[in-house]
Amino acid sequence: MYLIHVALASAPAELPASLGDFIRRHALPEERIEHVSVHAHAVPWPTLGVFVLADRLAEAEAKAAGACRRALALLPALSHVTVVRAEAPLMESLPDPGADGNDHAGPNRPRPVRST
After folding, report:
1. Neighbours of 31 (CB within 10 A)
2. From the DSSP assignment, how many helices (H) and strands (E) are in the chain?
3. Most buried among 7, 30, 70, 85, by the most CB within 10 A?
4. Who wins on pLDDT, 11 or 56?
5. Which CATH number among 3.30.565, 3.90.550, 3.30.230, 3.30.70 corresponds to the domain 2-87?
6. Are 39 and 22 in contact (CB under 8 A)?
7. 86 or 13, which is more confident?
8. Region annotation Disordered: residue ranges (predicted)?
Protein backbone atom coordinates (compact mmCIF):
# COMPACT_ATOMS: atom_id res chain seq x y z
CA MET A 1 0.00 0.00 0.00
CA TYR A 2 1.19 3.49 -0.84
CA LEU A 3 0.27 6.86 0.61
CA ILE A 4 0.00 9.34 -2.25
CA HIS A 5 -0.42 13.06 -1.66
CA VAL A 6 -2.60 14.67 -4.31
CA ALA A 7 -2.17 18.46 -4.32
CA LEU A 8 -5.09 20.58 -5.54
CA ALA A 9 -5.02 24.00 -7.22
CA SER A 10 -7.94 26.45 -7.35
CA ALA A 11 -9.65 24.73 -4.42
CA PRO A 12 -12.11 26.75 -2.34
CA ALA A 13 -11.12 27.91 1.15
CA GLU A 14 -13.02 24.98 2.64
CA LEU A 15 -13.23 21.56 1.09
CA PRO A 16 -16.23 19.40 2.01
CA ALA A 17 -15.49 17.08 4.93
CA SER A 18 -17.10 14.27 2.94
CA LEU A 19 -14.77 14.70 -0.06
CA GLY A 20 -12.53 11.80 0.94
CA ASP A 21 -15.45 9.37 1.16
CA PHE A 22 -16.86 10.70 -2.11
CA ILE A 23 -13.58 10.03 -3.94
CA ARG A 24 -13.29 6.53 -2.48
CA ARG A 25 -16.89 5.66 -3.37
CA HIS A 26 -16.43 6.84 -6.97
CA ALA A 27 -13.04 5.20 -7.54
CA LEU A 28 -12.95 2.34 -10.01
CA PRO A 29 -12.48 -1.11 -8.44
CA GLU A 30 -9.18 -1.57 -10.29
CA GLU A 31 -7.82 1.65 -8.74
CA ARG A 32 -7.88 -0.07 -5.34
CA ILE A 33 -8.31 3.13 -3.32
CA GLU A 34 -8.48 2.17 0.36
CA HIS A 35 -8.85 5.51 2.15
CA VAL A 36 -8.74 9.23 1.40
CA SER A 37 -8.06 11.94 3.98
CA VAL A 38 -8.55 15.65 3.32
CA HIS A 39 -5.92 18.19 4.41
CA ALA A 40 -7.77 21.35 3.41
CA HIS A 41 -5.27 23.76 4.96
CA ALA A 42 -2.03 22.16 3.78
CA VAL A 43 0.54 24.57 2.37
CA PRO A 44 1.12 25.45 -0.43
CA TRP A 45 -1.95 23.55 -1.73
CA PRO A 46 -4.85 21.70 -0.15
CA THR A 47 -3.87 18.03 -0.26
CA LEU A 48 -5.62 14.69 -0.33
CA GLY A 49 -3.88 11.75 1.32
CA VAL A 50 -4.84 8.75 -0.81
CA PHE A 51 -4.00 5.22 0.33
CA VAL A 52 -3.69 2.99 -2.73
CA LEU A 53 -2.97 -0.71 -3.17
CA ALA A 54 -0.54 -1.07 -6.08
CA ASP A 55 2.51 -3.05 -7.14
CA ARG A 56 4.60 0.01 -8.00
CA LEU A 57 4.82 3.62 -6.87
CA ALA A 58 4.20 5.06 -10.35
CA GLU A 59 1.06 2.92 -10.63
CA ALA A 60 -0.20 4.16 -7.24
CA GLU A 61 0.44 7.80 -8.20
CA ALA A 62 -1.44 7.41 -11.49
CA LYS A 63 -4.39 5.65 -9.82
CA ALA A 64 -4.68 8.30 -7.10
CA ALA A 65 -4.52 11.18 -9.59
CA GLY A 66 -7.09 9.57 -11.88
CA ALA A 67 -9.55 8.80 -9.09
CA CYS A 68 -9.31 12.34 -7.72
CA ARG A 69 -9.68 14.02 -11.13
CA ARG A 70 -12.73 11.95 -11.96
CA ALA A 71 -14.44 12.56 -8.62
CA LEU A 72 -13.75 16.30 -8.67
CA ALA A 73 -15.28 16.54 -12.16
CA LEU A 74 -18.50 15.01 -10.78
CA LEU A 75 -18.95 17.78 -8.21
CA PRO A 76 -20.13 21.06 -9.80
CA ALA A 77 -18.69 23.16 -6.95
CA LEU A 78 -15.26 21.53 -7.39
CA SER A 79 -15.16 20.81 -11.13
CA HIS A 80 -12.72 23.72 -11.66
CA VAL A 81 -10.21 22.27 -9.14
CA THR A 82 -7.13 20.75 -10.75
CA VAL A 83 -4.64 18.14 -9.60
CA VAL A 84 -1.24 19.84 -9.36
CA ARG A 85 0.68 16.68 -8.52
CA ALA A 86 0.26 13.19 -7.13
CA GLU A 87 3.31 11.72 -5.43
CA ALA A 88 4.47 9.86 -2.38
CA PRO A 89 5.49 12.23 0.42
CA LEU A 90 9.15 12.21 1.39
CA MET A 91 9.88 11.33 4.99
CA GLU A 92 12.98 11.82 7.05
CA SER A 93 14.71 8.48 7.54
CA LEU A 94 14.95 7.19 11.07
CA PRO A 95 18.19 5.85 12.52
CA ASP A 96 18.69 2.11 12.55
CA PRO A 97 17.81 1.09 16.14
CA GLY A 98 20.92 -0.10 17.88
CA ALA A 99 23.32 0.78 15.06
CA ASP A 100 24.97 3.41 17.23
CA GLY A 101 24.56 1.57 20.53
CA ASN A 102 21.34 3.43 21.30
CA ASP A 103 17.96 1.74 21.00
CA HIS A 104 16.24 5.16 20.67
CA ALA A 105 13.47 4.01 23.03
CA GLY A 106 13.42 7.10 25.26
CA PRO A 107 10.98 10.02 25.25
CA ASN A 108 13.23 12.01 22.90
CA ARG A 109 13.58 9.24 20.34
CA PRO A 110 13.34 10.17 16.65
CA ARG A 111 9.81 10.23 15.29
CA PRO A 112 8.41 10.42 11.75
CA VAL A 113 8.12 13.91 10.33
CA ARG A 114 4.53 15.17 10.10
CA SER A 115 3.29 15.33 6.55
CA THR A 116 1.48 18.38 5.22
Report:
1. 22
2. 2, 4
3. 7
4. 56
5. 3.30.70
6. no
7. 86
8. 92-116
Residues in the chain: 116
Average pLDDT, the chain: 88
Q: Give pairs for 79-85: CB < 8 Å, separation 24+.
A: 80/10, 81/8, 81/9, 81/10, 81/11, 82/8, 82/9, 82/10, 83/6, 83/7, 83/8, 83/9, 84/7, 84/8, 84/9, 84/45, 85/5, 85/6, 85/7
Domain boundary assignment for the chain: 2-87
Q: Supply the pLDDT for residue 15.
A: 92
Strand partners, 23: none
